[in-house]
Every structure is written in structure tokens, then in C-alpha cells.
Amino acid sequence: MEIPYVVTPRKDTGLFNSKIAIWLFLASEVMLFGGFFSAYVFLRLGADYPWPERTLPVLPGLINTFVLIGSSVTVVFAWASLKLREWRKFQFFMGITVGCAMIFMVLKGIEYNVKLHHQAMKLKDYSVIEGHLGVESEDGKPVLDHKGSTIEENLIFVEASKLTFDTVRFYKPWVEELLAQAEHHHSKVALAEDVTAIIKVGQPAEIIAKAGEPLSVELLNRLQAVHLAARSNNAANRTEALRAEWVTAKAANPGKKDWQIASGVNIDTAALAPTLLGEISTVPFSVDPPAKFDFHPRDIKAAEGQSRLRDDTVIDGKLLASPMVFHNIDAIDFQHLVMKAKEKGIDPEVAIENSWLMKNSAFVREAWAWHQGEVKKLSAELLKAHGVGKDGKPRYTPTHKELYRIGWKDLAKKAEDDGRTKLSGVDAAKEEFFGPNYKARGDETFPGLSVPREQVGFASKFTPAWNTYYAIYFTITGLHGLHVIGGALVLAYYLFFGKKMYLSNPEWLANRVEIGGLFWHFVDLVWIFVFPILYLM
Amino acid sequence: MADTPEAIKKSVRTYMFVGAILFVGTIVTVLVATVPWLDFGRHGFDAADCILGLTIATFKASLVAFIFMHLNHERKAVYWLFGSGLCMVCSLAGLTALALGDPIIDKFFYSGH
Q: Of B99 and B81, which is predicted with more confidence?
């Protein structure tokens, strides 16, 4: 069957069909991205924390902008080449376009990778530090866990003597993980006591599992089956008994409303008891000898004596020191602390002086003193350049970020002022992509810091979890990246499989490339807004 | 839209010129955001920088839309389709923006009535 209007335009619209289709699609895309840009504006205006202004590295974004603009030019050249029936030129320009798409995604991948490996932590007093976490080590060598992996120093350790599982909610992978950790520490996890329950109505309680039986998923599954069967039986019996009570009560109180007799309708628990089966909602296991278990902070609500996992497994035991250890810190940020201090009417300088970081880290104190000197210099420069206003105050003053954030470039400058390593050329350019080069600049520039667990307010990598800025950043750029991949696949298809169509119906291929090109230009058009909004504002 | 070989050859020069403007526009945007003496308005990022940055971005986007996407000489149907999408975004974003300046509190609670 011949598809109509692929080359010749329809009389009513004046356009070939696929062009109508792509513009309809692009109109929906405008609304999609428009919605996300609106979301960005409202998240920024409504943020209850200092918005991370101009926080992304500009260079990768700038190069990506050039790459996309370049590809927009080459895709239109590719279309023009087809119109002029120059197949080789088409291949050349389309090849560059697809290549540009690949470069764009590689650069985006690098940018994402840096974010996903960069740690941020907000202390309970709202001061923030950024950097990279260390791994546990002994005698300079990393300690390996039971899986043979290094242990990032952001774990919560508990010396457990007893584990109590919820028979309904227990999470199989965590049970296996606990077993593996216990085995690694040569500990045995076994039932602390006999588990008994009535499993047949009218029969005495039976032993379901004996004390000393080792922990296994199969055992928990078995206990869960008994528990659920009992729960089902008991619920049915209770409902039946309650129904019978209602029938009796209604018969005894004719004409009365339900709410008038409801308080007198109660199940006779003594009469019901013989019909009930034994429910086993929790099962305790002893850990012998007590072993050191580690947990990701997001999975455990830690407390001295008794902690609880998200699947309601209760861990009895001693909460061990579980500091969060930064191998290198590359930013100290008091912006949020100052914001909170101002809300409470506290002098920001006093709040900073009283922060945990200032009281416990000599490096932070030193960096802050240096930073204040830099702020004074900047204030003087602004005063000299712009003078004072009518009120006699300086017309321009340092921004909130300049006043209260010491970024990695500031720390690098401080180190350079102190006569330490100065990077230039390619090394300096690499830092714009990959972030601070700890190795080249040394631990004196970006020293380590150990923060006790009780001081940690919230910690995360620079993922959508960290704040709404990163949530919208990943949403918009991720969606845009998917569009780049989709568009590149379509254009690559024309490049590698278009020859046959070119030989049989070149105008049809030219129209197809025009459609693919329109989508590609739209992808470029979106990035033209994404770049300044996310990277420069 | 250019359809004859001559017209297409002519428009290729336009595409190159527009591409060059887009590159320059990008550099200008970055300079305005990063070079202190090109910082408009107050010191640091402010409304003036925002307006300037978005104006340049809108100009660049218009070039892409009108020249590369041939919106400068398209059929009516395309303008209707794309225009309606744009109008929908603007009107919905505008409606939500009204929430930021809720007039009810001022009118009924602080007007003295």
C-alpha cells in the first residue's frame, strides 16, 4: 500500500503528513518542558534554603552548548545536501551531527558521575560541608567487608546481641545480608527460644521451631506462613462472632439505631479464645558471640540499646561510634546556618562562631579567618569601584554566597596564597570538569574531617535527594539527555540505512531528514534555555 | 522555505551566519554571568542579569526556530499548532504565578473593613 502525502503536500494543510505530526509532537514537547521550567521557577522562589546559585561548572555546559549549536548547523546542512542530491555531503554532515550527540552525552555522563560521587552533609546546626568520603583502613590498607568491597566511612555500626524479625515485614535481602555479616564475624544467629503456637483449633500449642535453630529465610518463611494462616483464621472468627453479636443486639433492641446500641456490642473474648490460632508476629534470634553489624544510614533508625531497621527488624545491642569521615573536604558553607540564625534573630557571626565546625576543626577556623580577609578585600574593591549610595552606605556589597560560602576554588586559592601547589593549563582545565584535584593539591589544601554521627543532620551525594535544585537539575537535564539519545538514534538510522530510500525516492528521505532535523533543533532550542538557567543563574 | 537548488545554496550561507551568531550569543551570555565588569544591576546575580540572560537565550532560540526550523515561512497550520502549545504553557505558568501574589489577605484582612 502506498502511504499518501509523504512527499506531496495535502491540499487542506499545505504540508506533508509527517510535518503536521512532528509539529503536533513539538507543541506537546513545548508544554512538557515548559512545565518543568515553571517547576524550576516555583521551586527556586519557594526554596526554604539558600538556592545553589551558579553552582555547576560552566565549562562542560558551555562546551555542550557549542556542541549542540554546531550539530544544529550540520543537521540543516545535511538536509540541504539531500535537497541538492549530494549523498556524500549528507553523510558527512549527518555523521558530524551524530558525533556531536555522542560528545554531548559523554560530557553529560562525566558531569553526572562527578555529582553522584561528591558528598554533601548538613550538620544539625545547618552548616554544610562538601567533599569525598574516606574508606575504612588499617595500616594504610583499605579494610574489606564480607563481599570484598571497601567500606565507605558513612556506615552505622551496632554490636548486636539479638535480632528480632517481624514475620510479615522482614526483607529477604537484608536477612541474607545479616547472615553474611554474622558469618564474616564468626557469629551464629539462632532462635533465642522455642517458637510455639496453636496451629489446629482445639489442639494444644505445638513447637513450630526449636531454640537454637539457625536463622534462614526458609525458617522465617515457614513462621510467616503459620502466622498468616492464624491471622486469617482469627480475623474470620472475630468477624463471625461480631456479626452474631450484632444480630443478637438488633433483635434485643428493635427500632433502635445502630449507633445507639454499638457501645453494647462486644465480642465475648473468653468464648472466642478456643477457636483462635497462635499468631507469631515477631521472632527473636540471639547473636552469639555479639557481632559488629554495619548498616547504611538510610536503612536504620539507630539508638543506644535498641535500633530498628526499615523492615521493623529490631536490633538489640550497643551502638558503636559511627562517625562520617570525609577524606577530603572541598567546601564549607554557612549560608543555611546564617539564614536560620537570621530567622531566629541571632547575629550570623555569633552563629558561625558557635557552630560545631568552628569549635571542632582548626582547619575550618583557619579557612574562615582567611575568607573574612578575602571578603574585606572584595568589599573594599566594590566600594572603590561603585562608591556609596544616598544613604551613605556602599552601593554594592558582597553577595550572601560570597560572604558565607568557602568553595573549592576559594580553598585552592587559600592554599596557593600559602605557597602550596598551583595548577595551570590542562590540569586546571581538568578541574573544571572533574572537580578539585585532591591528589595534585594535597591533603593540606583539602584536609579530612570526622563528624560524629549525632552531629549529622542530613547527608547525601549530589543527587536529587540532596535538595530541590538537584532534583529539578537531574529531571530537566535527564529528560533532555533522553531526547538527545532518541534524536541521535533517528538521525543515525537515516545516516546508516537511508541509502536505499535515497536511490528510490530521495525527496521522501529529504522530508524525513527535515522531520528528524526539526526535532533535533528543538532539542537544541531547549538546551539554549537550560544552559543559562541551570548553569549561570 | 528554500526549495530550488539556488535558493537552498543561498540559505546555506544564512545557516552559517546564524550558527555564528548563536556561538557569539552563547559566549556573551557566559561573559555577562562571569566577568565582573559585565555584571549588570547589583553586584552578583540579580533580576537584571536574569532578564539579560533570558533575553539573549530567547533571541538565540528565536533564531533556531525561525531560521533552522523554517518558522519564518511556514504554513498557517504550523503556526497554529506550535503557537497553541506556547500559549498553553504561558497561560498555565501565569495562572500559577498568581498564587505568589494572593490578593485576598490584603483585601479582607488588612484593609480595615
A: B81
Give CA torsion, residues A246, A252, A257, A262, to 10 deg: -40
**Would you state the pLDDT for residue B6?**
82
How many of the other CB atoms lie within 10 Å of CB of A409?
A: 13
Mean pLDDT of B39-59: 89
Task: Please give the Cα distance from A229 to A217 (Å, whole number).
Answer: 18
Q: Residue B100: pLDDT band by 50, 70, 90 thresholds?
A: low
Residue B50 to residue A536, Cβ atoms within 8 A: no
Q: Which of the four pLDDT bands, split at 50, 70 and 90, describes residue B112?
A: very low
- 3-class secondary-structure state, position A206: strand
| CB contact at 8 A, A483 and A526 | yes
The residues of chain A scoring below 70 in pLDDT are 1
Walk me through the domains of chain A, giving residue ranges and CATH numbers.
17-118+468-536 (1.20.120.80), 156-321 (no CATH), 326-461 (no CATH)
The dihedrals phi and psi of A510, each to the nearest 5 degrees, come to -60, -40
Confidence of residue B77 (pLDDT cuts 50, 70, 90): confident
- Is there a contact between B81 and A24 if contact means CB atoms under 8 Å apart? yes
Task: Tell which B residues from 8 to 27 touch A, by Cβ distance under 8 Å.
Answer: 8-9, 11-12, 15-16, 18-19, 22-23, 26
Residue in B9, B29, B93 closest to A532 by CB: B29
pLDDT at residue B108 is higher than 50: no
Which CA distances in Å does A185 have to A116, A146, A150, A216, A305? 31, 9, 16, 17, 20
CA pair distance A91, A87, nearest whole angstrom: 6
| Half-sphere exposure in the Cβ direction for A98 (13 Å, CA) | 19
Nearest-CA distance B60 → chain A (Å): 7
Confidence of residue B102 (pLDDT cuts 50, 70, 90): low
Give contacts of A14 with chain B, Cβ < 8 Å.
75-77
Which chain A residues are within 8 Å of B18, Cβ to Cβ? 73
Inter-residue contact A314 to A163 (CB < 8 Å): yes
Neighbours of B20 (CB within 10 A): 12
Q: How far is CA A534 from the centre of its chain?
A: 18
At residue B105, the pLDDT reads: 52
Rg of chain B over Cα atoms, rounded to whole angstroms, equals: 21
Residue B111 has what pLDDT? 40
Is the distance from CB of A122 to CB of A107 less than 8 angstroms?
no
- pLDDT, position A218: 97
What confidence tier does B113 reach under pLDDT thresholds 50, 70, 90?
very low
3-state secondary structure of B92: helix
Closest residue of A to B69, CA-based?
Answer: A518
ipTM: 0.87
Determine, for residues B19 and A19 on separate chains, whether the beta-carbon distance falls below 8 Å: no
Best of A12, A409, A525 to substitute, by most chain B Cβ atoms within 10 angstroms, is A525
Return the domain boundaries, chain B: 1-74, 75-113
Q: Is the distance from CB of A476 to CB of A40 less than 8 angstroms?
A: yes
